[in-house]
Amino acid sequence: MADVQTAPTCRYHKVVLKNVQLWEPCSEEEATEWLVNQEGCNSKSREYPIRPMRLQPPSAPRLYVIVQPDGALWLEGCLYLFWCWSTKGDKDSTASNAAGDLCDMMNKLGNSEKDYNIFRGPKSERPTYFYKSELKLEIAKGKIKRKTANRKITNCVGLYTWKLVYRGFRPEAEMWQEQIEQRRYTDKYGVMQVREVKSTDLSFKNKDSISTGRFIRDGGKLYPIARENQKVLLGVLAELKNVEMLLVHIVSLTTGLRIQSVLTLRHSSILCNVGSDGDPNKYALYPIEIGEGTLVEAKNSKAQVVLMPAWVHRVLHVYVNSERHKTRSALSPITDDASQYVFLTRTGWPYYVAEADQSLFDFSAEKGSAIRQFAQRVKEKLKEADAYFSYQFHDLRATFGMNLLEDYMNQVKDGKMNQLQLLEKLRSRLNHEDVNVTLGYLRYREDHPHLAQAQSEFETHLEELIHTEISKHDESRAGNVCS
Fold first, then answer.
1. What are phi and psi of 183, to 5 degrees?
2. Beta carbons within 8 Å of 416's beta carbon, 6+ residues apart
3. What distance in Å separates the CA atoms of residue 406 and residue 128, rounded to the nearest whole number?
4. Distance separating alpha carbons of residues 446 and 342, to the nearest angstrom
5. How far apart are CA 73 and CA 54, in angstroms?
6. Which residues pair with 23 in a beta bridge?
7. Could you tell me the sign of the dihedral formed by the alpha carbons of 233, 238, 242, 243, in that order?
8. pTM for this predicted structure
9. CB count in 10 Å sphere of residue 462
10. Distance (Å, whole) CA 457 – CA 21
11. Which residues contact 22 (CB under 8 A, 6 or more apart)?
12. Pick from 132, 133, 117, 134: which is nearest to 173 by CA?
């Protein structure tokens, strides 16, 4: 099955193929089956032997190919994308970007009647430098950002590097000049390290601001939500009366989890018999394992332990045992209760399909689009309430971090921890590899001393809100089903 990405048929465009069976030609003795020539002849002479590809899975869940203006496949582009998937292990979003960027390159070269294989003459006439000049023009016109342009350049360089190594390509003139830069960073132990980074003269210099003042850089530009606006946001979420969206926001605000982790939480992630009103450890923190070795996805598949308050475990336990959730679970192809997603749509599909479950959900590339659509409704409601502040789901992570920092600062004032302990605790809770990212939160607080509120104070308000909302959705039916 193929999904054609919307594009004019007279241009290079990408197509995604689902569940592609992988095979290769072989000798008759090694054959597992024979493939009939598609030109149409059933005689043995027009068939050839094939076998499953060695060192590869039997099929590719989603594989991108590039179609030329004449309707035929662009061979080298397709082979390169397959290599990226099979050898580099590119994820779907990365492969999709690569396919789209290579289409963009070929279309720009084609518009000027340039052959992507011909490198001669002055730099400005060579395909790589010509493509850079086209991207530079788009940056100047405000059509794309430098970050996007550099991603396109990276995919361009990736294709030509692959041609050099695997296709015996020998350009007549230099395609780019390579340079090695030394970049300093602070590791999680606070030790200054230096790493070498290769770049080319095709890349655009990064002019992004450092992580101070206006935003926090933590996997993107994040804008923590001020304390008065946090309560406004919660009021809007309650007003919209979408239980799943409210819970998703609550989880992010109390754990700092990214969207891919929140939306791939499973029943097995949630503890029962903790966090009830009578539990003396109601506000204690209990771990959830995510990343490699679990069904819950994490950034770069990094194995992590994230702490969730007991009362949030309780709220999610009540929810997954509600009739609302059970009705959705009954429509899901996942039959193992422990592996079931906590958050499902009305159709029984997850809001974010994990890589491990793609075959169960028709090789879907769904990555949280419903959350982004819901965010638009939130923004509309905020506008109606005359609340004008930046809001995107990922900002909740920075909001959690700033609230948590406020808790720790209070402990420093009370002499319960020192500054180094504060920094390490904050880094650990946010699972930062580079302590400089954590330091960005402290710098931000210096510029916005009254922005955050203590996380413990905030969670009290969250709990009150969630009790009011969840009680509307049949808590009594959940029972104590966990032994």
1. -115, 135
2. none
3. 49
4. 38
5. 24
6. 52
7. positive
8. 0.75
9. 22
10. 54
11. 52, 53, 56, 57, 58, 59, 60
12. 117
Give the list of residues 6+ apart from residue 196 with CB closer than 8 angstroms, or none. 180, 181, 182, 183
Torsion of CA 339, 344, 350, 351, to 10 degrees: -140
Distance CA 394, CA 388 (A): 17
Contact 312, 269 (CB under 8 A): no
386: its two tokens: 């005359």
At 173, phi and psi to the nearest 5? -140, 170
What whole-number distance in Å separates Cα of residue 146 and Cα of residue 203?
9
Tokens representing residue 290 in the block: 């995510």
Tokens of 371: 């959350």
Backbone angles phi, psi at 52, to 5 degrees: -60, 145
- Do the Cβ atoms of 257 and 251 come closer than 8 Å? yes
Q: Which of 422, 75, 64, 462 lies closest to 252, judged by CA?
A: 462
| pLDDT tens, residue by residue, 337-358 | 999 999 999 999 999 999 889 8
Residue 452: band (very low, low, confident or very high) from pLDDT cuts 50, 70, 90:
low
Q: What is the CA radius of gyration of the chain?
A: 26
Say if CB 103 and CB 11 are below 8 A apart. yes
Three-class secondary structure assignment of 42-64 = CCHHHEEEEEECCCCCCEEEEEE
Residues in the chain: 483
Both tokens of residue 101? 């960027």
Q: Provide CB contacts within 8 A for 1, sequence distance 6+.
A: 17, 18, 19
Q: Where are the beta strands (DSSP E) in 235-343?
A: 285-290, 304-309
Q: Within 13 A of 438's CA, how many CA atoms are on the CB side? A: 25
**pLDDT above 80 (res 105):** yes
Helices (H), 115-241: 127-140, 146-166, 227-240
Q: Which residue has the tokens 């992630």?
A: 269
